[in-house]
Amino acid sequence: MAQDKYDVAALFRQYVADEDVMAEEDCKGKWSVMLQYIHSIGKDLYCHGIFRLWEEIDAVYGIQSLDRFMENKELLALAVNDGSYWGSSNNWYGGRDRFWKNLGFLDKEESVKLFTWAEEYFYKRKPEHYNDFLYEFLRKVAPELLPAEEGRAMMETVISAAPAKSYLVDELRRIYYKPEEWDTYQRQEQERKEKEKEEARRNEMEEWKKEILAELDAVGTEREKCAVFSKKLRETRYGDKDKRTVCLVMLEQRLQKGKIYAEEKELVSLAEELVSMVEYDLLDWKRFQEIVKNMEVSENEFAGNGAA
Fold first, then answer.
1. Most exposed among 15, 142, 245, 289, judged by the fewest C-beta atoms under 10 Å?
2. Same domain membership, residue 122 and residue 90
């Protein structure tokens, strides 16, 4: 292949030597064709000879000038992603199956150097993908390339900046935590999630209680209040048992102030909801009887029946 015909790293060294001693125009004239060749062959990191060329460019100009010299702004991103562009569609949540593929010609020291080049590139040129790059490196390359303590420290840095509760973050923890650390973390996470769930449930029940109280405060008569309890129990008959229980407790608290007086239809409706709670084991029979004993038809209802 062409890279076997010319040592591109040696060619570059010759160019630099001429650049130091020749006039700029003379140097450009002498090297115009060969520089095109270097740019053409040196843009893809597919063999050790190209890596040596990049090392020479780094030594002379600094790695930050690599993409400018090679006339390709995506050079390092393409190199670590097997020629695939690091586009916005492959952000933190996206996978990169080609990451660090076909780089087996690099030894360990050279692989570390490529990482430092790419890390600087993403940090300065592609900050929106910096965490993404580190995640891919930590997941696929670092365990075999870096000392354990360095990989762990890098993992902690990524975790501190990663999306909260990301399953990808847990994947890194599973790789870099010791077995006992991972078990402890999982147990603590489960406890945290349970506490959050309980807190959210308490807040939901508190809001439900406020909703009931607001509807009770919005009505004036005992008949209307009875209708509110009946309605709120009916709303949750086939849904949230906890909400039904909250409503029942509030009804029993109301009964501590005295009997409920309402028209017969409101009392029947409320009794039907209470019966359904008995059927679903949300209310025992004794409590049901106690509630019903404190429900009476209002005098206006009796008067109406008598007039009829």
1. 289
2. yes
